[in-house]
Design goal:
The complex is a heterodimer. By secondary structure, chain A is mainly alpha-helical. Chain A has seven helices and no strands. Chain A starts with 6 loop residues before the first helix and ends with a helix. By secondary structure, chain B is of the alpha/beta class. Chain B has seven helices and six strands. Chain B has a four-stranded mixed β-sheet. The longest helix of chain B has 13 residues. The radius of gyration of chain B is 17 Å and the shape is globular. The N and C termini of chain B lie far apart (55 Å). Classes of the chains: A mainly alpha, B alpha/beta. At the A-B interface, helix 1 and helix 2 of A face helix 1, helix 2 and strand 4 of B.
Amino acid sequence: MVTLPPFERFYEEHRDEVYAFLVRRLGRDRADDAFQETFLRALRAYPKLRHTDHLRAWAFTIAGRIVVDEYRRTRPTVELPELAGEDGRPAFAELEHLAEDLPPTERAAVILRYGYDLDYADIGAALGSNASAARQAASSGVRRLRRQEMS
Amino acid sequence: MTTVTPELDRLFRDAAAREQLLDVAYDFVDSPIGTLLVAGTERGLCRISYDADPERELEQLARSFGVRVLRSPMPLDPARRELDEYFHGRRRAFDVDVDVALLADFNRRVLGELARVPYGEVVTYGELAARAARPRAARAVGMVMNRNPLPIVLPCHRVVGANGKLVGYAGGLERKEALLRLEGAIL
């Protein structure tokens, strides 16, 4: 049985670095909305988390996903930014490295599924979609990785 | 380092409550008997604590009601207003809903009787036990008072020993005395 800290603790611990990341990526004006959206998404998925080891990486994954959405929405032709936080690589750096050429959604789904062991409902919530979309993204990501490996 | 402004922080805390994403919202309320930690669920007020260090309290709330425990002042505004009125002598009964769903039947029944003890009056543990149809359970009633999750609103300060002595209070006897003095039950 996993004991997650009260959400207040998670929020207090990560809000400033997540906000700083969003400001760097989006500028201060757009960072405010993205900040709220990040932690609202985190709230939706939080009770279903299966372990507490990578909460920081998880927060950055959600924030990174929102940055990607925001870029897509406003500047569809601009190159997509890196997904996760650039500092303090978490334990699954290796998987992140392997997956780094995947499209952003597949990459996030693969890392959350196989790196952080979240189930598809959680991943769907973290990515702002749903379980079946998350499953599809993860499996097409894995297929793409296999093809990369063989070529 | 770029840090979250108080305004943005407040926007998020409000949004979390408005979107009904919280198991428990809590906030701190200043009062003449110290800062209170006040917490509520969707169903109503679930905790008032005198404990100045909230760490243990938050853990306890997370275990009882769910891990989405967040400081969020907005949903506690009605409770804050009623407590302010009470401490200014302008309110004699509380109207906010309470959430006692998790309590044992006996505790709920005793606290239900307790809620009927009027402002400014006191009862003994034995009397309260009798009203809850358990006349010999004065000691058990004492335990229920000791673990009352909602002191002040559920007025366990109005329960005294058989000899009229104040006896005990989870928040400390000074607070019990201050509350009874405020209500004019003692001079």
